[in-house]
């Protein structure tokens, strides 16, 4: 049986090692750089040979992998050779158009489910496609506590404006420390009055 080529960013090395272990435990031969590359050898040629001789490429797609030119070269080479690509979605990343129709496994369902789905996917002829959650445009903190975040941004904005105004007044020999102290007391009073929003 031909091997699977594992493509990833070193920023996700630990997660990649765990997935490779699960694949190998399931009797799948995996080309993994830490296990295959020999010090002093031509790494570029070894990688190209690993891709050309594989039966499929597993791509652990993260933001770092998406931005990596080396990772892109690997999956594009496999794609040109007609190799199936199994995308393991590590985090919320927009898929390149060329990978829209590939198998997709979403890691955010938990590692055990991810490993099981990946093994199932690489051992079958079917295209596996997990339902991908929509891209997030709001920070998690905003979703959990919108009032707290809004108040924090509002107060930070007032502090910034107050600081700019203090610098402006200092140009006219107005005691800036007195102005800053007044602004600070005002902000404390303001936040106390609207403290119910923080609860």
Structure description:
Helix 8 (146-170) packs antiparallel against helix 9 (176-193). The protein has helices spanning 13-25, 33-36, 43-52, 63-67, 69-80, 111-122, 140-144, 146-170, 176-193, and strands at 4-7, 30-31, 56-61, 85-89, 103-106. The radius of gyration is 26 Å and the shape is elongated. Strand 1, helix 1 and strand 2 form a beta-alpha-beta unit. Residues 136-144 have low confidence and may be disordered. 52% of the residues lie in helices and 11% in strands. It folds into two domains: 4-122, Rossmann fold (3-Layer(aba) Sandwich), CATH 3.40.50.10140; 140-198. With 199 residues, it is an alpha/beta fold. It has a five-stranded parallel β-sheet, with helices on both faces. It is built from nine helices and five strands.
Q: Beta-strand percentage?
A: 5-15%
Rg (CA only): 26 Å
User: Per the principal axes of the C-alpha atoms, what is the gross shape?
Assistant: elongated
CATH classification class of the largest domain? Alpha Beta
What's the mean pLDDT score?
A: 80
Instruction: Tell me the domain tally.
Output: 2
Major sheet summary line:
5 strands, parallel
Ranges where pLDDT stays below 50 over 5 or more residues in a row are 136-144
Order of helices and strands: EHEHHEHHEEHHHH
Distance between the termini: 60 Å
The total of helices stands at 9
Spatial strand arrangement across the major sheet: 2-1-3-4-5
CATH superfamily of the largest domain: Toll/interleukin-1 receptor homology (TIR) domain
Number of strands: 5
Helix content: 40-55%
Structural class comes to: alpha/beta
């Amino acid at each position: 049986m031909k091997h699977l080529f594992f493509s990833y960013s070193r920023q996700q090395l630990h997660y990649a090692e765990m997935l490779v272990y699960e694949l190998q435990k399931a009797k799948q031969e995996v080309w993994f750089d830490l296990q295959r590359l020999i010090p002093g050898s031509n790494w570029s040629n070894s990688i190209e040979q690993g891709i050309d001789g594989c039966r499929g490429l597993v791509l652990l797609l993260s933001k770092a992998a998406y931005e990596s030119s080396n990772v892109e070269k690997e999956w594009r080479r496999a794609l040109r050779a007609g190799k199936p690509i199994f995308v393991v979605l590590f985090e919320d990343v927009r898929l390149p158009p060329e990978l829209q129709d590939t198998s997709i496994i979403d890691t955010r369902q938990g590692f055990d489910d991810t490993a099981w789905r990946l093994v199932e996917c690489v051992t079958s002829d079917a295209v596996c496609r997990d339902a991908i959650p929509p891209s997030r445009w709001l920070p998690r903190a905003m979703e959990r506590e919108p009032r707290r975040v809004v108040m924090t941004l509002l107060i930070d904005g007032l502090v910034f404006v107050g600081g700019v105004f203090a610098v402006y007044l200092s140009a006219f020999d107005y005691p800036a420390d007195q102005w800053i102290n007044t602004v600070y007391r005002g902000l404390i009073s303001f936040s106390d009055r609207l403290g119910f929003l923080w609860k």
